[in-house]
Amino acid sequence: MVNHDSPGCHNRGGNRDPIYVPVFLAIVGVHVLVGFVCVVTGVIAMLSEKRPGRHPTVGTVYFWSLSAVFVSATVLSAVRWAQDYHLFILGLISFGAASLGRMARRHRWRNWVRLHLTGMGLSYILLLTAFYVDNGHNLPFWKDLPSITYWLTPGAVGTPLIVLALLRHSLARRAASRGVWIAK
């Protein structure tokens, strides 16, 4: 029996139409799968040596998986806009940050290392923020925390890691020592 109150049902003339439920759930399934790929490839890219090979390959998988997360999140948010518009906004900013980081690296913009590190790091923080905001109330340990924790914890953990990476990366340090902090 179909639950007509499930999130994928659309209201048509006062009646819930269950025809969209399988489509909605299929999109959720794809969203979860590519989200998991993002989490894993993001960690691998962060921990990989920054040279040709593993880092750019896994980083490319991360970027395109994040693109799929953004597209699926957009569709899912549109279906339940009143409840999920904030997830769309997080996805949009996450995808925007990753796009900035990727373009800075590919086009070798001035300060590209800092832009790449910051953009990709922020995209990962926002990916995790959206996950916890949407699912934290169902997770062990997290469900006992105030909901503001879901919003703040990824940034509180991730931002110092981005700063540390900026301070430790040899190319970012070299640019900083030359006083090239802001593009002129």
Structural class by sheet pairing and helices: mainly alpha
For the record, the count of structural domains works out to 1
N-to-C span: 63 Å
Beta-strand fraction estimate: under 5%
Total strands: the figure is 2
SSE topology string: EEHHHHHH
Based on Cα principal axes, name the global outline. Answer: globular
In short:
The protein is mostly helical and 184 residues long. It contains six helices and two strands.
Q: How would you portray this structure in words?
A:
- The chain is mainly α.
- It has one domain.
- The protein contains 6 helices and 2 strands.
- The chain has a two-stranded antiparallel ribbon.
- α1 runs antiparallel to α2 and α2 runs antiparallel to α3.
- The chain starts with 9 loop residues before the first strand and ends in a 7-residue tail after the last helix.
- About 4% of the residues have low confidence.
What distinguishing features does this structure have?
mainly alpha; 72% helix; 3% strand; two-stranded antiparallel ribbon; 184 residues; 6 helices
